[in-house]
Specification:
The protein is of the alpha+beta class. The protein contains 18 helices and 23 strands. One of its GO terms (biological process) is extracellular matrix organization.
Length: about 450
């Protein structure tokens, strides 16, 4: 049929026609006419047809692996194609549509299925550019910043890239002044976009915990974390992952990212309200420098840092005894350090999380109000990013003896060892009053990472 010469040519080039002939099951082909192919800009169509993966995805997206009887479609109905996507069928007074494209009432029957003619191509994600995906996912504010940065041609025609794109809501959580600066200042926009992207395709199934990738700005790394049922980047969570385009992979995140270019120690010193914690850290490191090892390659840390007021609540005499006892002071400090970067968004309401510090296990729970508790302390500030990891400020000191007393009588706990913990923030979480709910994660390989600045 001369109406389908472009489709036939693409099928021959890819060998897809042989797959259909060898298929033992009858199928339905939604066949785009030559006019449908001509509606796509010539340069874009050429790029799709010359890209093996994009071409195959395009062809698979027009084949349903079973017969489709259109009269049986009397309302919205989704059907899976031979590819990775589902197509929405619907009908109205004028006839039937698929993904909003009108289907011809005429069809042809063959030995191994049926064929309906389409006047438009149905492009799968894999045959779309990153710019098309941004628009499809309604990332309009991020798109505007990309255009201000002058990177629209890059993400339309070049790559492969992985983009961690803030959602529309995340972009508008920024101050109006910041957002206006990004939308109007080319240099600011370029820095912002380049920090949210990296070279190559990163699929969440292949991310290892504490993995570090260099952003496109070639100055600021992006730290990835594997949580129980999610993946994070810096202090953001990926809310929609692995949207594969022709020239890259798109992940949508719930926060705009800002590079961390200051160490944890510098942040605490600059604040001025953590002098006792810093003094305790210095004593521990003087007494036993290898105890903390905050320059360990491939590791980002979580610091639960009590304020000076929290230490003073212990009373002068008790605080003095702690500070003068090197062994107990070391245990106390180690009880505030976790060899894993855990951000507040990773904690779900009404679940207790058993977190292994360098000393013992502590409890973290997010209450319905959103308040985060660490044992009987409350996080008063959290997600303070730094080159070492992340700081959460707490209003009470996590003394190891208090933790031990709390752990022993209540319930049996499984200690999450370091290697298991590197796979998930939580190996064991329990719903209030209902016992443990175990969650497994697959083993992932740890990748090398540049040494981090020391805390002090």
């Amino acid at each position: 049929d001369l109406r389908f010469s472009q489709l036939a040519k693409a099928m021959q080039q890819s060998g897809f026609v042989n797959s259909l002939r060898n298929n033992q099951q009858p199928c339905t082909i939604l066949a785009p006419s030559d006019e449908a192919f001509q509606k796509i800009p010539k340069s874009r169509l050429q790029k799709i047809l010359e890209d093996k993966h994009a071409r195959e995805a395009l062809l698979q997206n027009h084949v349903i692996p079973h017969p489709v009887c259109l009269p049986a479609v009397i309302g919205e109905h989704k059907m899976r194609t031979m590819g990775d996507e589902k197509l929405k069928f619907d009908c109205d007074r004028k006839g039937h549509t698929v993904e909003g494209k009108r289907l011809s009432a005429d069809f042809m029957m063959g030995q191994n299925g049926m064929l309906y003619m389409l006047d438009d191509l149905i492009l799968p994600n894999r045959a779309k550019s990153l710019m098309q995906l941004f628009e499809q996912e309604q990332l309009f504010a991020f798109l505007q910043v990309i255009r201000t940065a002058g990177l629209d041609d890059t993400f339309e025609n070049f790559g492969e890239y992985t983009i961690f794109a803030p959602s529309e809501a995340a972009m508008y959580e920024m101050s109006s002044k910041e957002l206006l600066q990004l939308k109007t200042n080319r240099e600011s926009a370029r820095k912002f976009v380049m920090y949210h992207a990296t070279q190559g395709r990163i699929h969440t199934d292949h991310v290892s915990d504490n993995q570090v990738v260099m952003s496109l700005d070639e100055m600021n790394p992006l730290r990835l974390q594997v949580y129980r049922k999610a993946v994070g980047v810096e202090n953001a969570m990926i809310t929609k992952s692995n949207i594969q385009g022709m020239n890259g992979n798109l992940h949508i995140i719930n926060k705009a990212l800002t590079p961390a270019n200051i160490s944890a120690g510098d942040i605490l010193r600059k604040d001025g309200n953590f002098s006792i914690f810093l003094q305790a850290m210095e004593r521990v490191m003087e007494e036993s420098p290898e105890t903390l090892e905050l320059k360990k390659a491939g590791t980002s840390y979580t610091f639960f840092v009590p304020t000076d007021q929290a230490f003073n609540k212990l009373g002068a005499s008790r605080l003095e005894r702690i500070m003068d006892d090197p062994n107990y002071l070391m245990k106390t400090i180690k009880n505030h350090v976790v060899e894993h970067m855990i951000v507040s968004e990773s904690f779900k309401p009404d679940l207790y999380y058993d977190i292994q510090t360098r000393q013992s296990i502590i409890d973290v729970v997010k209450e319905k109000s959103g308040t985060l508790k660490v044992n009987d302390a409350t996080m008063t500030n959290y997600d303070i990013l730094n080159t070492n990891g992340v700081i959460h400020v707490i209003n009470k000191v996590l003394l190891p003896e208090d933790s031990d007393e709390e752990l022993a009588p209540k319930r049996r706990r499984e200690v999450v060892n370091k290697e298991t913990y590197k796979r998930n923030v939580v190996r064991n979480a329990r719903i209030k009053g209902e016992g443990y709910v175990s969650h497994s994660g697959k083993q992932v390989a740890e990748e090398a990472k540049p040494s981090l600045d020391s805390l002090a």
